[in-house]
Amino acid sequence: MLRRVKRLRSFFQPFYEEYDCEEMLLDNQEWRQIDYLLQITRLFFDYTTELSKTKEVTTHLVFKLYNALFDHFFEAEALLKRKRVPWKSDMLKALAAGRLKLDEYYSQTDNLKGHIYAVGTMLAPNSRFQFFLSDNWEPHWRDTYRKSF
């Protein structure tokens, strides 16, 4: 929706003037907030769009996508931590809440019987068990997933 609002920005001014509701117009700071939100949510939008287009199995991509989303959150938080503008501080709090929600969803991948996402990752030719040999994975998870396999 924000993408659409951004595309239609040039139509808002004449519309609000014609219908005498200029108090609803967004100022430059509010447009910057929209730009920030679009930038932060872009990766979610891209992944959702790509995954919804495919009819292929995507189980093997779950961990990779979660890792990319977490990295994106950490990068965005690092950029906003230095900012002192109140709305950017609010956005930082929202990012922290979003990261907690993402973490909640991510933790549910381990609650499925047989660790289906890990097994799916190991069965994918482009990742196999090598995926779990990076520093991102603690040894106990490697052992658990290998046993499930």
For the structure shown, list the relevant keywords.
single chain; 149 residues; mainly alpha; 7 helices; 68% helix; elongated
Kindly summarize this structure in a few lines.
The chain is mainly α.
How do the SSEs run, as a string of H and E? HHHHHHH
What is the alpha-carbon Rg in Å? 21 Å
Structural class: mainly alpha
- What is the overall silhouette? elongated
What's the number of extended β-strand segments?
0
What is the subunit arrangement here?
single chain
Percent range of helical residues: 55-70%
State the end-to-end distance: 42 Å
Number of helices: 7
Largest sheet: none
Q: β content, as a range?
A: under 5%
- The unreliable regions are none
Mean pLDDT: 90
List the helices and strands and how they pair.
Elements: H1 2-7, H2 9-18, H3 28-53, H4 62-81, H5 86-107, H6 116-123, H7 139-148
Helix pairs in contact: 3-4, 4-5
Fold and architecture overview:
The chain has about 150 residues and is mostly helical. It has a domain at about 1-55. About 70% of the residues lie in helices and about 0% in strands. It is built from seven helices and no strands. It has helices spanning about 1-5, 10-20, 30-55, 60-80, 85-105, 115-125, 140-149. Helix 3 runs antiparallel to helix 4 (about 60-80) and helix 4 packs antiparallel against helix 5 (about 85-105). The longest helix is centred in the first third of the chain and has 26 residues, at about 30-55. It is elongated, with a radius of gyration of 21 Å. The model has no long low-confidence stretch (mean pLDDT about 90).
